[in-house]
């Protein structure tokens, strides 16, 4: 198999070749290895290789829907026994996973070949992927720009053609943001749809879910079929979808849908014209298909949603830093993690339990409001991000953050920052490029990013669709329909733009 041929197939396409005995799993494995070794020096998407383990596994004839297909896993939440689990942090550089995660176990049963782990920001905290421990991952379509985060390494690997599919998870947009930045399809499933255990019963209090990044809708749908199903001990569950997500793609969206949309930032910040244009093009297509379109904002307080999301963010970082003691054998210090991580942890440490619980209650307020909203509207459409991909380094500490670090460094506490209103300013600053995605994480709704636009610079732009809880089938149906339309920005178009 030649390089160009390998890269034109999606995961199901490669699995079909294996099934027909037109190609052997070891051949696909070596082709993927070659792509990784050729492209990774520029992209820095893969930070840990598992080639020999994969070669040994390839000697056994694989079975399953994706038998023989190479895949990369994200270095957060997708543990493989005896392999590294660093979460992008130098503090965990020597840690090795003790068991397979349930996510990995289900993918293994599907026949995938695991080739390595992808680059992530420290603890998955950023919408970019520039960890101090491993260096910046880069966007295949413009190497000076970010592929997004926190699943940035996975997005770069799939968009470049290293593998057709890579593991991803989403706690605030970490599937949808990289999908938008790299011209991929990214679905965040409903809370409880995919497994997060067994080391966790809830991932980021239920905000985070596991899935994948893909080039095609059908790969994402087929993998959701493999991942869905009850998980013992999980904090959240949802009635199982009794059909096949892959099969539903063969059925057109027959009824005329009511669709709401907004291009306004929920935290009242700027939205780039290209991101607005992407939504406009999508709406024009949907109107041409006979669907009803109405401009209306989501029935939630965007700033309260942002504040409650950041409350989770601060608390989880603080808890993660505290948990490092068990691994390091001592309390973590400012030298063990990145400066911004330490700052976030101190803010979390300064929060009271009362404050945390009150902010968590906002999740339920938003969830009920959105479920009522979706009684009327089938989809809520927004830009996936407020801006195209940022340049590498654009997210270095700003003056405000530097001041915050100096204050907390001297006092060892973030209480003063809160009194000065600096925490609120940090919330605004950190979410202004990506204010649209967090709502679905807090409410538990499914949401997806579709590649529908490219800037004059050749950078992809995505549009986000949200649906009521449990409605992945409707999202996938619509994605499958748009994928066949001229609106969809296919990989061939992006390759042409990247080559100019």
Summarize the structure.
Helix content is 43%, strand content 12%.
Walkthrough of the structure:
It is a single chain. With 500 residues, the chain is of the alpha/beta class. The chain has two domains: 316 residues, Alpha-Beta Complex (Amidase signature (AS) enzymes), CATH 3.90.1300; 130 residues, no CATH class. The chain contains 19 helices and eleven strands. Strands 4-6-5-10-11-9-7-8 form an eight-stranded mixed β-sheet, with helices on both faces. A three-stranded mixed β-sheet has the order 1-3-2. The relative contact order is 0.13.
Topology of helices and strands:
Blueprint: H1 3-8, H2 11-19, H3 25-43, E1 46-49, H4 51-57, E2 70-74, H5 102-109, E3 113-118, H6 152-160, E4 165-170, H7 176-182, E5 185-188, E6 209-214, H8 217-227, H9 245-248, E7 258-261, H10 273-288, E8 292-295, H11 302-328, H12 339-350, H13 353-376, E9 379-383, H14 399-411, H15 415-420, H16 422-431, H17 438-443, E10 447-454, E11 460-466, H18 472-483, H19 491-499
Parallel strand pairs: 2-3, 7-8, 7-9
Antiparallel strand pairs: 1-3, 4-6, 5-6, 5-10, 9-11, 10-11
Helix pairs in contact: 3-6, 6-7, 11-12, 11-13, 12-14
Notable features of this structure?
500 residues, alpha/beta, Amidase signature (AS) enzymes, 8-stranded mixed β-sheet, 3-stranded mixed β-sheet, 43% helix, 12% strand
């Amino acid at each position: 198999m030649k390089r160009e041929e390998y890269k034109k197939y999606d995961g199901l396409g490669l699995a079909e070749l294996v099934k027909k005995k037109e190609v052997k799993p070891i051949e696909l494995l070596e082709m993927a290895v070659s792509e990784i070794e050729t492209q990774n020096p520029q992209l820095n998407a893969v930070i840990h290789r598992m080639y020999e383990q994969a070669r040994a596994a390839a000697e056994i004839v694989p079975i399953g829907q994706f038998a023989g297909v190479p895949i990369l896993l994200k270095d957060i939440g997708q543990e493989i026994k005896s392999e590294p689990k660093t979460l992008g942090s130098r503090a965990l550089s020597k840690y090795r996973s003790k068991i397979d995660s349930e996510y990995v176990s289900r993918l293994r049963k599907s026949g995938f070949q695991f080739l390595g782990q992808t680059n992530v920001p420290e603890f998955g905290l950023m919408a970019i992927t520039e960890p101090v421990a491993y260096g910046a991952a880069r966007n295949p379509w413009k190497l000076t720009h970010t592929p997004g985060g926190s699943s940035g390494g996975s997005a770069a690997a799939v968009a470049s053609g290293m593998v057709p599919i890579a593991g991803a998870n989403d706690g605030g947009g970490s599937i949808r943001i990289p999908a938008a930045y790299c011209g991929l399809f990214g679905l965040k499933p409903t809370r409880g749809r995919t497994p997060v255990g067994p080391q966790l019963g809830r991932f980021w209090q239920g905000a985070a879910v596991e899935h994948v990044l893909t080039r095609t809708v059908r790969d994402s749908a087929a993998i959701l079929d493999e991942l869905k199903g009850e998980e013992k001990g999980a904090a959240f569950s949802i009635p199982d979808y009794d059909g096949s997500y892959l099969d539903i793609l063969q059925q057109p969206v027959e009824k005329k849908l009511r669709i709401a949309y907004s291009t306004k930032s929920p935290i009242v910040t700027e939205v780039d014209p290209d991101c607005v244009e992407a939504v406009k093009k999508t709406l024009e297509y949907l109107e041409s298909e006979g669907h009803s379109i109405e401009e209306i904002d989501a029935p939630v307080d965007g700033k309260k949603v942002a504040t409650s999301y950041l409350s989770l963010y601060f608390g989880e970082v603080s808890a993660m830093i505290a948990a490092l003691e068990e691994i390091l054998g001592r309390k973590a210090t400012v030298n063990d993690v990145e400066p911004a991580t330490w700052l976030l942890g101190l803010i979390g440490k300064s929060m009271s339990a009362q404050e945390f619980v009150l902010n968590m209650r906002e999740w339920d307020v938003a969830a009920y409001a959105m479920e009522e909203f979706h009684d009327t509207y089938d989809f809520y459409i927004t830009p996936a991000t407020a801006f195209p991909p940022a340049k590498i380094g654009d997210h270095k500490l700003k003056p405000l953050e530097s001041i915050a670090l100096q204050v907390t460094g001297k006092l060892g506490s973030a209480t003063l920052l809160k009194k000065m209103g600096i925490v609120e300013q940090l919330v605004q600053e950190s979410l202004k490029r990506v204010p649209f995605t967090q709502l679905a994480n807090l409410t538990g709704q499914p949401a997806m990013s579709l590649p529908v636009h490219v800037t004059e610079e050749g950078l992809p732009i995505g549009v986000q669709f949200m649906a009521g809880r449990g409605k992945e089938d409707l999202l996938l149906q619509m994605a499958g329909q748009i994928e066949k339309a001229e609106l969809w920005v296919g990989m061939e178009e992006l390759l042409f733009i990247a080559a100019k």
